[in-house]
Design goal:
With 436 residues, the protein is an all-alpha fold. Helix content is 86%, strand content 0%. Keywords: Cell membrane, Membrane, Transmembrane, Transmembrane helix.
Length: 436
């Protein structure tokens, strides 16, 4: 486990850091191109897209990773191709459903839910890419389970580069100052890059299956096992995503109720979510890679009944995550002004980077804890904790934002992250004790 995990983590971290560097540079350019208000509007559109993506994926990425890892861990590699096919059929059903829902209800969502008609065009554009995104999730889960993450990493890098190029091209033809068309240009780039990503991922998958042909092995109850993993995770993720989207929708409204103008509320929200948070989460690439790659490793160890390996791996991961994230927190706090000025050409985000930096050890380590829980089959518990956390966040936003404005929003982020981490860590400790 150790050698493969280190190799794949290094590979995935390197590609993720490269993509994040590209993304941060592009985000800085985008903020200058469409302004803080445009960034705020784009973040609102993406919060709705996150909800629809949750419906499109419906737990299938993790289900594909776990089911394929179970087949490999049980010595039934000949059934892997069948497992992927079942997952693709599932993802196609939910991806097309999500696209139809978003396309049909774009106007009510834009006018009534978001409260800004300028988002309708962007929502309809994003709907077109949901089936492709869903299918790509299955193939990415397959490569993760097989330990060939370099293939999905390569595709994601090409996707990121194509996204940057396409958005720049579309924005070049969009009129300056027209926030609606600028936002639509960005979402068009996202949709086009999602389509390209699936085409490349599918081509690599076909080549991979030819190199590792299916044998005669068959696995019983494959569909039932897939649904048993995907559906509970899907239902819980629907609830969490809906509550999280509701929270993001309530933020600008709460800020307006506190006395800020509509554009000022969008700008404040955009600075925190579109400028400060990307910088805060940038160093997390390493731990995000670990949290993804540890899932098949722990699943295979669990299938073999290797409790000693599970306990040792979890303990080491948590310890190293805390050390790494603490160092990142110190650097972010110390260099907040430099980072904001270097990336965005303004010190607008520096105050919020400094305010959020002490929360970094909790945020980062929680990613690894979540990955460990999923690898040990505790995905429903993990999502249950996230649902509670999202519901609490939405309630606090509704109650406190009109009183405390942006200061209250920072406090709410702290409360959400601390409660989520405490509950997740307690559950992981309880699960690990079973392997004593």
């Amino acid at each position: 486990m150790g050698k493969r995990l280190v190799y794949n983590t290094a590979l995935l971290t390197g590609s993720s850091l490269l993509m994040r560097c590209i993304g941060m540079a592009f985000q800085a350019w985008l903020a200058g191109r469409i302004g803080a208000t445009g960034i705020g509007l784009f973040q609102l559109v993406m919060s709705v897209e996150m909800l629809c993506t949750t419906l499109a994926v419906s737990g299938i990425r993790f289900a594909a990773t776990r089911i394929v890892a179970e087949e490999i861990g049980s010595g039934r590699e000949g059934a892997v191709g069948t497992a992927v096919l079942r997952c693709c059929m599932y993802s196609l059903l939910f991806g097309c459903t999500a696209a139809a829902v978003l396309m049909s209800f774009a106007e009510p969502i834009g006018f009534l839910w978001i409260g800004d008609a300028r988002t309708v065009m962007s929502l309809r554009i994003l709907a077109c890419g949901l089936p492709f995104l869903s299918l790509s999730s299955v193939l990415s889960g397959y490569f993760t389970a097989c330990g060939r993450v370099w293939k999905s990493a390569l595709v994601h890098l090409i996707e990121q580069l194509s996204y940057v190029a396409l958005v720049a091209l579309f924005l070049y033809h969009a009129p300056d100052g027209d926030i609606e068309r600028n936002c639509a240009a960005v979402t068009a780039g996202i949709t086009a890059s999602d389509m390209l990503s699936f085409a490349l991922m599918f081509a690599l998958f076909l080549g991979d299956r030819r190199a590792h042909p299916a044998g005669s092995a068959r696995s019983e109850r494959l569909t039932i096992r897939m649904l048993g993993v995907a559906l509970p995770l899907a239902v819980s993720s629907y609830a969490r995503s809906a509550l999280s989207t509701l929270e993001h929708m309530l933020v600008p409204r709460g800020l307006r109720r506190s006395g800020l103008s509509a554009d000022s509320a969008l700008a404040g929200y955009g600075v925190i979510q579109g400028m400060a948070m990307p910088l805060i989460s940038f160093p997390a690439s390493l731990l995000m890679a670990v949290s993804e790659l540890i899932v098949p490793e722990l699943t295979e160890a669990q299938m073999r009944g290797d409790g000693a390996l599970i306990r040792r791996a979890v303990k080491q991961l948590i310890k190293k995550s805390l050390l790494f994230s603490s160092a990142c927190a110190i650097l972010l706090f110390s260099l907040a002004d430099v980072l904001s000025a270097a990336v965005y050409g303004t010190d607008e985000a520096a105050e919020y980077i400094r305010l959020l930096a002490p929360l970094v050890p909790v945020m980062y380590t929680d990613m690894v804890v979540d990955g460990c829980l999923k690898g040990l089959g505790q995905q429903v518990w993990s999502m249950g904790i996230n649902i509670f956390d999202a519901a609490l966040g939405a309630a606090l936003v509704w109650l406190l934002l009109p009183v405390g404005a942006l200061d209250a929003y920072i406090g709410i982020i702290y409360a959400d992250e601390l409660i989520n981490f405490a509950m997740s860590a307690a559950r992981l400790r309880s699960v690990c004790r079973r392997f004593s």
